[in-house]
Amino acid sequence: MINSSWQAPEMQRRLARRHAAERRFKALGLVAIATSLLFLAFLLFTMLRQGLGGIDWAFLTGSDSTDATVAGVWGAAKGSILTMGVTLALSFPLGVLAAVYLEEFAPKGRRWVEWVEVSINNLAAVPSIIFGLLGLAVFINVMHLPRSSPLVGGMTLALMTMPVIVISGRNAIKAVPPSIRDAALAVGASPVQAVFHHVLPLALPGILTGTIIGMARALGETAPLLMIGMRAFVATPPGGITDPASVMPMQIFLWSDEIDQAFVQNTSAAIIVLLVLLMAMNGLAIYLRNKFETRW
Amino acid sequence: MTEQKLKIAARNVNVFYGAKQAINDVSIDISTGVVTAFIGPSGCGKSTFLRTLNRMNDTIAGCRVEGQIALDGQDIYASGMDVVELRARVGMVFQKPNPFPKSIYENVAYGPRIHGLAGNKADMDAIVEKSLRRAGLWDEVKDRLAESGTALSGGQQQRLCIARAIAVSPEVILMDEPCSALDPIATARIEELIDDLKERYAIVIVTHSMQQAARVSQRTAFFHLGTVVEYGVTEDIFTNPREERTKDYITGRYG
User: Fold this and answer.
1) Same domain, A166 and A276
2) Within an 8 Å CB–CB cutoff, is residue B147 touching chain A?
3) Domain segments of chain B as ranges
4) CA-to-CA distance for B110 and A186, rounded, in angstroms?
5) What is the distance between the alpha carbons of residues B102 and B99, in angstroms, rounded to a whole number?
6) pLDDT tens for each residue of A32-44
7) What pLDDT, in 10s, does the model give residues B73-88?
8) A–B: how many Cβ contacts below 8 A?
9) Residue A92: C-alpha distances to residues A103, A284, B131 (Å)
10) What are the transmembrane regions (chain A) (predicted)?
């Protein structure tokens, strides 16, 4: 018979080993978290130290200039806002409708539907520079839309953001209990009514979270915008979506390239502004998710 | 005795899930003023057959129905049949209570609203009150109609679902094991309710509980392996079954 007494030394040693393994694992996890946080803290610290002094009203309201002391971030920020506006206006409705169609209406198991699904998943993984090339080839060379404009930038980034919205939207729709759909259909709602009255409102928090995460990614994107000419020197804030413009990450890239040492502070200050914007967007995502979340 | 009028006539119905046959040559009559119970072991096809009666099986990919199911003489699988109208006329209550995560009022008002049954707010209020009264829930919820339907107890939720089904004035109510998630007291309330409701509606109830079938129904169909083994007056099925398999099932020899 196996020794079953918990007081036996063998059993005690065994228990001690298990507890030690437990402690080791927790320590390892803490080290992993601390390592990543350390880098973030270091980045934030250096940026704040170098850039905080550069943030004043003139910096927040000015535009790019060859003189570091008068150069400001507003021109690029306004370019970013206009570009994001175009991106959201295009990718949100397209993405949500595509997600709804694929999840609720597309015939299951058909080859073309599977093909579309695989394509969308792949689209989300395509390197962003490729989208830039696509934007250049289609929007500028074929459709002759104005180069360097938030319109073309927004359209290019919308192509990138849409797959993210489709994927998160499908997951959010899938998470709505089928019983809700059945309940609506059983009182005589048409499939479209069941989706728009019941399924979509319940999926909205998840869709919004995915959308904002996709938008935050687009806000920090530089590579595709290089291809469509948004790296130009723009000294006046764009008046509309067809004016030449730059965006925040591009501005940071341009300033970091300057030989003039005075631009180092500008670079750091612009990074702080961009980070604050990104955090605000993530905060909004969390707020919206909590606000619209329904329990059943 | 309430008037019994033939409502649904199902003839030689076969149902397939892909290549697999789930229902084999089933013919059943369902009448107004009568509670019809479907009993049988798990997987015997009783729920599948129930879902063919308001075409809820349309939502299942690969499901195919053969044969004829007529509602007041009109084939519900004919191309001219509007599924929206059919489901308004043949309501359904599900196994698990599934109120919308909206207010109690909205739960009941949703059906009448999409069908345009209420001309104004007062009409709608009247429909909501009448439906909740018939479902035996009015007195419990009349002061908190704005509260979420999901905050109610399981038994109350199921009665809310019944009120929701009644609100669109259906002719038939299909109930798919409506008490399987409820405690005995809530079950007793639903059973009383079914008894009251049969005056106005044709009611079909799928149940795993033979006692429940015996208590609430006047007709019983015993399903086994996708076929109806025996269909007749409930009392006869339970006291004097014609078929050996029925007898074995109701005496608990298998199931």
Assistant:
1) yes
2) no
3) 35-42+83-250
4) 11
5) 8
6) 999 999 998 998 8
7) 999 999 889 999 999 9
8) 67
9) 16, 16, 40
10) 27-48, 81-102, 123-145, 151-173, 194-216, 269-288
